[in-house]
Automatic annotation (TrEMBL):
UniProtKB keywords: Hydrolase, Protease, Zymogen
Protein name, per record: Germination protease
The species this protein was found in: Paenibacillus validus
Any one Gene Ontology BP term: spore germination
Function comment: Initiates the rapid degradation of small, acid-soluble proteins during spore germination.
Amino acid sequence: MDLDLSAYSVRTDLALEAHDLASASGSAIPGVHTSSKDEEGIRVSLIDITSEEGSRAIGKLPGHYITIDVPELRKKDSDLQDRVATVFAREFEKFLLKLNVPANASVLIIGLGNWNVTPDALGPMVVENVMVTRHYFELMPGQVSPGYRPVSSVAPGVLGTTGIETSDIVQGIVERSKPDLVIAIDALASRSLERVNTTIQIADTGIHPGSGIGNKRKGLTLDALGVPVIAIGVPTVVYASTIVNNAFDLMHAHFARQTSNTGQILGLMDTMQEQERLELVKEVLNPLGHDLLVTPKEIDQFIEDIANIIASGLNAALHEAVDVDNVSAYTH
């Protein structure tokens, strides 16, 4: 029996995962340049997509992507969280330099997502913790100490709670406040259990709210807003089909340690490629409405922790007067 799998594709917001899928054959992808480095349990990967061919191959817009992977981040290690915030701040500063963003550029931080839904509340929670200074520059510019820049922030909500497209709200704010740069923060979807709650992505391509869960809304991009947009995201959910597929991989690895004939135990599924197997699982689950979005039970605490990490990193990266020694004074 031939299965029609063309209607099913792997959804991921992470450029690193998209690159891994596209380069599974081992051949290089033209117009895509990658590099990575490890430092004490923190892996920083860079992907530059410089051509339309590379963009089509990966399914991501041309631009610069940074992925910070921290497998141990779920263990609530405060020292590790501080180191991640430091690495994030350093990489974000480099990102600003690469984009030629001056030290005095005004910044608008947008916290995307629904604050009433914990896995989607990352953006609003970061906004609660970032240091806003634009009003000081507007009302008392002579009293602002050196080392700070104008920063404003807003959590515009979601279409279902406001009745207004998020991009329309943001566009109105941008037109009135005229920032030099927009930073949009949102929760993402991943195709891998290992990256949920352990990965931070930074990209200069803007963002389309809801795209990772197939609910694409109008984007926040340079073309739409007229100013550069840096997107920051953390995967907080995976599809049930991804969990099923990952569970099969774990079973295969378990049986492979005990026998060389895993096919006798796992049958036809053992001969299928990962992509084909995932699409088959989706074909079974989707008509039943069972391909749910799933988040870990510890999500409440994790969202608070990762929001604080990102806010601390942004405070240090955006303001020269804030560094790793005093950054905790600006968050809660």
